[in-house]
Records
---
Amino acid sequence: MAICVFGSLNLDLVLRTPHLPKAGETLSSSTFETVPGGKGANQAVAAARLGTLVHLVGRVGADGFGQQLVAALLGQGVACDGIFEDASARTGIAAITVADGGENQIVLAAGANGLVGAADIERLKPKLPGASALLLQLEIPLQAAISAAKAARDAGVKVILDPAPAPAEFPAEFYSLVDILTPNQTEAEQLLGQPIRSVADALQGARSLQQKGVERVILTLGDRGIAVADGSDLQHWPAYPSSVCDTTAAGDAFNGALAAALDRNHSWTTALQWGLAAGALAVSQAGAQPSLPTRASLLDFLQAHS
Ligand code: RIB
C-alpha cells in the first residue's frame, strides 16, 4: 500500500561538542554540518528507505534550504507533491548540538512548519485513500495535527502519533483519534504529569495513556527499550545493543520502520522488532536522515540479532 506523513521539514544545523553546554558556557565544535531533518521528513525517509511508498505533506519556505530538503526527499523516493513552498515564510531550521556521548540539545525555528493548516489538510485528503497509516508528530500547529487525524479517521486510515515535542496541554479529544501513540520518556512524563523513573513506571505509564482512549501505546526508553500496552497485554521489550554516536532521529527511525512493517502486513511483533532495529541502527550513525537504515541493512541487522 502506502503511508502518508503530515509534518515538519527542517534543515538541521549540527555542531559536535565534548559535552552539552551549560547556561552561559561557550564551547567549540570540531565540525559544522547542515543535514536534512525535521520529524515529519525523517519519518518519511525512514519508511521510504525500507521500501514503502510514502507521501509527505508539509511546508517549506521559498528559499535554498527548502529546495535542498525537497531534493533530498526526492532522492530517497518520497512523493513530494504534497509539500507547499510558502513564499511568506523561511524554511524551518533546527540548531542541534550533539555531545560526544550521542545525546543532543535541539532549538527549533518553526518557520513554514508553523503555518501548516487547513490548506495542507486539503492536500493531504486525496492521498489518504489507499494508505495504511497516517504518521503525525507535533512540530506543526497542534490544531493542524488534530484536523489531519480526523481526516484520516474519516478515510478509515490508522493514525500513528509521535507526540514530539509534547505540548503543555494535550486535548483529550486527540487521544481518541490515535491508534498508536509513541511518546518517549520525556513526552510521556509531560502527557501524564508524573515522572517515569523505571521500566515498571513506563509500563504503568503506557497503560495510563492507553486508558485515555488509544488502542496501542509504545513508550520508547532509548537504551532501555520500549514499554508496550496493546489491548490487555503489557510488555517490556529490551533495546538491541548499539554503539551510540548520535541519538538524533532515533524516534523517527522507530516510527517510520514500525509503519513500514505494518504497511507490509507484517505482524505486530515484527513491526516492533523493525522499530527497535531501526532505532539502534540510527543512533550508531551521525545526523538525522543520513542515519536512517536501508531495508538491506535493517534485515541484516535483524538476522544478526535473531
Ligand atoms: O527528531 C529529530 C529531529 O528533530 C531533527 O531532525 C530536527 O530537525 C528536529 O526536528
Note: Residues 9-21+29-296 form a domain with the UDP-N-acetylmuramoyl-L-alanine:D-glutamate ligase fold (CATH 3.40.1190.20).
---
Amino acid sequence: MIKNIDTGCDLVIFGAKGDLSKRKLLPALYKLEKSHNIHKNTRIIGAGRANWNAQEYKKEVKNSIKQFLNEEIDDVYWKKLSNRLYFCNIDVYKTSDFLKLKEILKIRRNVTIYYCAVPPSTFDSIFTQLGKLNLNSNLTRIIIEKPLGISLETSQEINNKISKYFLESQIFRIDHYLGKETVLNLLPLRFANSLFYHNWNNKIIDHVQITVSEEVGIENRWNYFDQMGQMKDMVQNHLLQMLTIVAMSMPKNFESKYIQEEKIKILRSLRKIDKDNINQKTARGQYSSGIIKGKNVPSYLKENGSNQNSDTETFVSLKVEIENDQWLGVPFYLRTGKRLAHKYSEIVIYFKKTSNNLFQYSCKEFPQNKLIIRLEPNASIYMNILNKIPGIEEQYKLKSYLMKFNYFKEISSYNLIDAYERLLLESMKGIQSLFVCREEVEEAWKWIDPIVNAWKKEKKSTLQLYKAGSWGPINSNLMINKDNRKWNRFDKI
Ligand code: BG6
C-alpha cells in the first residue's frame, strides 16, 4: 500500500452536506490541522448535491466546525484548512458529474481517498462511477461505514460490489469504536502487563461484562433505526469488536492482517444462538416514555416518524460463549440500550472467587477481584483489591479497596483524540489495522442473523418494555441472575 505521509493526498468527501460530514469529519479535520497532522499538499474536496462555489463551501465548513467542536476556532489553523477546501457539485448517479471530479483530481497524480459519508443505497453508484472512469487506481483508497448491510446477504452484496472495483487493501471499513483511546489501550493492557497476560483465560477469569449504555434515543433517525434495532446498530459492530479484542490471542505484530486474523478466529468460535436457546441467551426491550436528565421523553413508538406497530428492540443483552480452550466456561455478557439511566461504557473482567481457610473468620464472603475498564465517561481503569482494615485488633478484618487510574488525572498531557480524527489520519497513512476487513463483517453477520431470525419467529413475546431513564427490561437482569451473577452497577464500582 502506498503511503502518503510525505506527499499529501486528496480527500474526497461524498456526502459533504450530510450529518456525518458536519458533525464528525470536518471538526476532526480541523483538529488534525491544529495538531499539524495534515500534509501541506493535502486537499479536501467536498462532493455533494449543492450549488456551492468554493467560498460558499468554506462558509458551510466553518459553521459546522463552530457548531460541533467544543472550542473556539483559531484563525491561523482555520485559514490553513480553508486553503485546502474545494467543492464539487455531484449527483452520484451522473457520470458527467464524476467527470468534473476527475478533472479536479487530474491536476495532480496523488493518493486519493474517497470517504463515502452517504447512505449505503448510493454506494453502488459511487463504486461503479469511480470504476468506470478509472478513478480507482492503486493510488486510491475508499472509506465506507456502517450500515454495511442489514444481514449477511445484504452485507455480501455491498462487499461484492465494492470488490469489483477496489482491492481489500484499498478498502477502509470504519468502526469508530476502534479509534477510541480506551479501546486502543486494550492491547497494551492485556499483552504488556504480565499479571493480565498470564491470567487471561478460563482458569482465572469467571466472566466478562461489556456494557454500552446510552441516554440518547434514536435522534430523528426512525427510518434507519427501525430496520436496524440495537442489535444491528450496536452489537453487530461496536460490541462484537470490543469482545474480539478482549478475547483474541496475541497477534504476531500490529499489521492489520495479523490483528484481523485473530479477531476472525474469535468471531468464528462464538456459540450459535438460535430459536432453540434464544430465551436463555438473550433479552430485548423497547423504551416507553420516561425521564432523562429531568426531562420527559417520549416512548420509542412516539418518536418522530414512528410506526406504532414496531417491535424493534432499543435494548439488548446477550450471554455469549466462545468455544475455544482459552474461554470455555467463561460467559461474556453484553448489554446495550438507548434511553438508559446514564451514558457510559465499560468492560468488566470478573476474576474467579478464591476460597481458603486462613481468612474464613475475617470476611464473610470473598468478593471477586474485578478489573473495570471504563471507556466513557472519565476514561479510567479500576481494580478492587482485598486488604486488611488498618487497626490494632488481633483479628484480620478485610475490605475491598479500589485502585484507580484515571487517564485525565494521571497523564497531564492526556488529550482526548476523537475517534474520527485518529481514523482519518490512519487512512491518510494507509494503515489498516484499526479498520475492519470483509471477513470480520461477514462473520459477525453470520452470528447475528440467526438471533434476529429467532426473535422474528417469537414475535412480540420476547420484547419487554422498559421505562426511559431506567436500566433496561427486567429480563436482562433475570438472564444474568440465573447464573448467580449481577450486572456491574455504574454507581457502585
Ligand atoms: C453509532 C450508532 O454507531 O454509535 C448510534 O449508530 C450510537 O446509534 C453511537 O448512538 C454511539 O457511539 P458513541 O461513540 O457515542 O458511544
Note: The chain has two domains: 9-145, 180-414+439-481.
